[in-house]
Design brief:
CATH class of one domain: Alpha Beta
Oligomer: single chain
Helix content: 25-40%
Distance between the termini: 35 Å
Strand order of the largest sheet: 4-12-11-10-7-5-6
Structural class: alpha/beta
Number of strands: 17
Mean pLDDT: 97
CATH superfamily of one domain: Type I PLP-dependent aspartate aminotransferase-like (Major domain)
Largest sheet: 7 strands, mixed
Low-confidence stretches: none
CATH architecture of one domain: 3-Layer(aba) Sandwich
Shape: globular
């Protein structure tokens, strides 16, 4: 069954009347998914090249994932973290296999922004310092603490003054960062691959230089891998660059779209946070933990890190070779790809949607691709065929 009993127009009408208008609607209502594809209420199929901002790494309605969550729904769905739980313990063990050595204490929450908020609190508690250094064009979330670290004025301006003093320096500029980090700096927070900015990987040796600057000043390094985690061909891009942060945050892909956030740190930093210093009612619930355990297992057992690296390189190479007249540049890491356009991105998004492909923007001029990691060459061919129509 691929159609809904309610039309696209009816669904959008209800949401338009009853939602706070934080999101600009794209003219369709998605009601079903299977594998790499989504269907709207009218029964039209779309290739998913966005995976809801990078979360659905196993695609939609994955049988193993659905069966595991169905089983957990019938067993136990919620449980406060003051009690132990078998699913939480299994996740805490499983996450150790993908994290850099030494990051062995974790806090579980429900989203990327919550993971960042916890990291900022940990850094201030562990160092006793107030300030944070972050990168221009960086994006860390829209709750007030995370928003303090987010650089983009369109997100910040309506809510200033913000609660955390943050100095923003150009991404990739080692000298500017070294000048900003001082004895009052609690932490430097960076995305190893800037996502919202347009998919900009950190320059070679940049993260190592940041690590050294933090060490000299006694500041902590927070790696924001909320979007890049599990997507760049390795579990974490910072580790791929040979750098271990003091705190690592991830969320989006960790549980294949089920709400979860993970803030992982060292025993030393963890020791600065006594019982009751932070918490989450829903964080670490058995259902989310089961979702994450299944996702981590599938990523490893199905070879999806390797597939992401291979397919991402193919997409970048194919787009470069096609010399589309509307494309200025393309770059990426794994299945995290940014395509700079010579015109505003909105018409391209509409054109791709008209040709059955759902993609994303990153700013006004960049097309962003964050597809499920289960894509194969068939889906890449479909994407390129649509791009030939829209960008050629």
């Amino acid at each position: 069954m691929t159609t809904s009993t309610v039309s696209n127009e009816a669904i959008l009408g209800i949401e338009g009347e009853r939602q706070v208008p934080f999101y600009a609607k794209r003219g369709i209502a998605l009601v079903r998914g299977e594998g790499a594809y989504l269907w709207d209420a009218g029964g039209r199929r779309y290739l998913d090249a966005m995976s809801n901002y990078g979360v659905a790494v196993l695609g939609h309605a994955d049988p193993e994932f659905a069966a595991a969550l169905s089983d957990q729904l019938a067993t136990l769905t919620t449980g406060h973290q003051s009690f132990g739980n078998d699913q939480r313990a299994e996740l805490l063990d499983a996450r150790a296999s993908v994290l850099p050595a030494g990051l062995d204490r974790s806090f579980l929450s429900n989203s990327g922004a919550e993971a960042i908020e916890a990291a900022l609190k940990m850094a201030r508690a562990a160092t006793g310092r107030p300030k944070v250094v972050a990168a221009k064009r960086g994006y860390h979330g829209r709750t007030l603490g995370a928003l303090s670290a987010t650089a983009e004025p369109k997100y910040r301006t309506p809510f200033e003054p913000l609660p955390i003093p943050v100095t923003h320096v150009p991404f990739g500029d080692v000298a500017a960062l070294e000048a900003a980090v001082d004895g009052e700096t609690a932490a430097v927070i960076l995305e190893p691959v800037q996502g919202e900015a347009g998919i900009y990987p950190a320059p070679d040796d940049y993260l190592a230089a940041v690590r050294a600057a933090c060490d000299r000043a006694g500041a902590l390094l927070i790696a924001d891998e909320v979007q890049s985690g599990f997507r760049t061909g390795v579990p974490f891009a910072c580790a791929g660059a040979g750098v271990t942060p003091d705190i690592l945050c991830t969320a989006k892909a960790l549980a294949n779209g089920f709400p979860i956030g993970l803030t992982t740190t060292t025993a030393a930093v963890s020791g600065a946070m006594p019982a009751g210093a932070h918490g989450s009612t829903f964080g670490g619930n058995p259902l989310a933990c089961r979702a994450a355990v299944v996702t981590l297992g599938a990523l490893r057992e199905r070879g999806l890190y390797e597939r992401s690296a291979h397919l991402g390189q193919r997409i970048v190479t194919e787009i470069e070779g096609r010399n589309y007249p509307k494309v200025r540049a393309v770059r990426g890491r794994g299945l995290m790809i940014g395509i700079d356009l010579k015109e505003r991105v909105t018409p391209t998004l509409r054109g791709l949607q008209d040709h059955g492909v759902l993609a994303l923007a990153a700013g006004n001029l960049t097309l962003r691709l964050l597809p499920p990691l289960i894509w194969d060459d068939t889906q890449v061919d479909e994407l390129l065929a649509a791009m030939d129509w829209v960008l050629g």
